[in-house]
Amino acid sequence: MQPSNLHAAPENKAATSADALAELHGVFSAFRETNDERMAQIERRLSSDVVTEEKLARIDRALDEARKRLDTRELEAARPRLGVEAKSEGPQAREHKAAFREYMRSGDSAGLKALEEKAMSAGSGPDGGYLVPVPAEREILQRMANISPIRAISSVREISTATYRKAFSVSGPSGGWVAEADPRPQGANQQLADMSFPAMELYAMPAATQSLLDDAAVDIEQWVAQEIDTVFAEQEGAAFVNGNGVNKPTGFLSYTKSTVAAWSWGKTAYLPTGVAGALPAANPSDIFVDLIYALRAGYRQNARFVMNRKTQAAVRKLKATTGEYLWQPPSGVGQPATLMNFPLVESEDMPDMAADSFPVAFGDFQRAYLVVDRRGVRVLRDPYSAKPYVLFYTTKRVGGGVQDFDALKLLKFGTA
Predict the structure, then answer these.
(1) What pTM did the predictor assign?
(2) Packing angle of the helix pair 91-106, 110-118 (nearest 10 deg)
(3) pLDDT tens-digit profile of 45-93?
(4) How far apart are CA 121 and CA 103, in angstroms?
(5) ∠ at Cα 390 (105, 217), nearest 5°?
């Protein structure tokens, strides 16, 4: 586990990403040709050839695999290099890093205790461990943003308390035209909502052998980040979509829902497809046009679609009346796929297409959803519970919830 193996040269990663992107575009060209053939067969004889269907299914799976490879290459290229000392680090930061590494390797916490006594903070006991160095925490959050799809597109706020509270204008701010000397009255219809976002505890428990910890070539902070970033990202990603708010964030699919016509503040609005578990048979692309324009113009500028891979596989077969495919692969390295020219974010925590499910979300997630991170990632070393392994109980406080219900719309695969 040498640092040199963990971080390849950036230029090699860029080339690999470009190759993966070219592969994706090539597979999509084959997908278009085969799907066009299938649709032509349906038009000629009201059914498609079995061989063509099987070929399309194989290409569809290959398209998914090509997209996965591109995502993996881009994720690897985006990962920060934790082993590099930051030039801006001061003596205190370097002292903290040295003490943290000594604690992780040998369990000697004297250095961390002394530092936290200087900072007038309690390090262990009720707090359950020691804070990782600030640069390591920052890089862990960056890695999580690269992996967690909802975190990457939402607003993120760092807090130092257990709960973040904010007032939000439900009806919009008061305004109007007045003369220079006229009074500026407050609108009688001004409504403010008090919203709270508690930070819940998320944990991971990586294990290591003592021989690994004794190896001076292993960067401990890097190892911790690599062990926990995916676990944290997967857990919080699921909660940001479907969390019930009990000891976890409240997912945007967990709020009370209503049709667009009956929408009121505190609910997420949806459009029904009119067919249980499916898109309309005639002009299925129209429902996506309706979904886009159900969102107010101010939100559409930064809006994006969110769905899982299975739903995306069904949607990329759709064509506009001009014959162009609604789904398009990324136009460049680091760019998302698009649906009707809007970015498409893939979240495997979104539900599959089924009767009365909500597999598609569309909105400005920067304004719709808020992620709160309580400052500090803590690690508690446990060499006793799983001998001969050393466990590292790592915790972080995360919360989340919808902050603007008007900035998000859902597509319901149902009749009403």
Answers:
(1) 0.80
(2) 150
(3) 767 778 888 888 888 888 888 877 777 776 666 555 544 444 556 677 7
(4) 18
(5) 40
